Every structure is written in structure tokens, then in C-alpha cells.
Task: inverse folding
């Protein structure tokens, strides 16, 4: 684990306790990704080292890209496809493990703009409704919007840039 990135995230998630039990064996990387997702984080591995970022926090750019840095005629701007958007997010959760039927939170966004596109998730790391609602709302806002995608070729002086680096 990259201790610097994990220490940065610790301050942000300190007030969001994740109290859960694993009742079945799971793939450890999938489990880590799910815990990070439900905690509004991004996790990735570079050369055997795991990094973590708290997504609601405003990131600090590591570099600025200008027009002179982009190879001529390689800049393309597109959008995420609307077929992959979510406009209705159904989230299940349990306040404790004695509850037979999980509780449900249904969130909607951009229903008028896009048809009803449903996603169902189980937020099993939280046993507090407010925490489930906060995380689910964060993800629905992201998943119910079309995003601008930028593709470009840069020159070798930007070879140090990696996936998940924030640029201006």
C-alpha cells in the first residue's frame, strides 16, 4: 500500500465507519474495490503498489498541459455514451444482521432527460442510513451524467504522467 495516499484518505473517511461482516469467502481485490467504491474512493495498483484516492475531495493537479504539449491533430473530444448512464439507483442495506429483508433507498436523477435506466447495488459496508444515502447520492450524480472524454498524444516530456494523475 502507498502509505501517503492511504493516510490522506484516512482523514476524509474517519467520520464514515464501515461496520460489516463477511459471511462468505471473496476475492480480496474485488472486496477492496467494493469497499473503496462504497466509501466513495478509487483504488488502483501500479507496479505492485496499491493507491487510494477519496473522490469527493478536490484533487491537486500534478501538471499543466498546453496546446504546445499536444501532438498536432491528435486531440479528440467525445462524451460517454448515454446508454451506459443510470437514472434510477436502487440501493439495499441492513442496519444489523437480524433484519431478514434488507432496507432499500431509491434515488432518481435525470429521469426527464434520459429514460429510466436502473442499477441495483448492495451497500453492505454501512449500517447507517445516512452514510448509505450519502455514498449512493455521490455515485448517482456521477453515473447520471454524461462526461467529456479527452484523447490526445503528448510528447515525451510528459512521459512521467500515469493513470489517475490530475492535470490542468
Result:
Amino acid at each position: 500500500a502507498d502509505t501517503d495516499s492511504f493516510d490522506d484518505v484516512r482523514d476524509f473517511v474517519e467520520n464514515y465507519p464501515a461496520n460489516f461482516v463477511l459471511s462468505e469467502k471473496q476475492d480480496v481485490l474485488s472486496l477492496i474495490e467494493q469497499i473503496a467504491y462504497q466509501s466513495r474512493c478509487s483504488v488502483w495498483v501500479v507496479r505492485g503498489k496499491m493507491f487510494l484516492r477519496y473522490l469527493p475531495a478536490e484533487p491537486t493537479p500534478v501538471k499543466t498541459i498546453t496546446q504546445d504539449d499536444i501532438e498536432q491533430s491528435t486531440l479528440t473530444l467525445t462524451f460517454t455514451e448515454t446508454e451506459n448512464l443510470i437514472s434510477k439507483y436502487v440501493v439495499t442495506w441492513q442496519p444489523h444482521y437480524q433484519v431478514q429483508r434488507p432496507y432499500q433507498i431509491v434515488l432518481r436523477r435525470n429521469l426527464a432527460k434520459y429514460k429510466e435506466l436502473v442499477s441495483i447495488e448492495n451497500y453492505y459496508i454501512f449500517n447507517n442510513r445516512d452514510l448509505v444515502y450519502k455514498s449512493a447520492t455521490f455515485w448517482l450524480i456521477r453515473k447520471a451524467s454524461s462526461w467529456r472524454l479527452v484523447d490526445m498524444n503528448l510528447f515525451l516530456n510528459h512521459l512521467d504522467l500515469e493513470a489517475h494523475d490530475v492535470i490542468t
The CA atoms of residues 69 and 158 lie 8 Å apart.
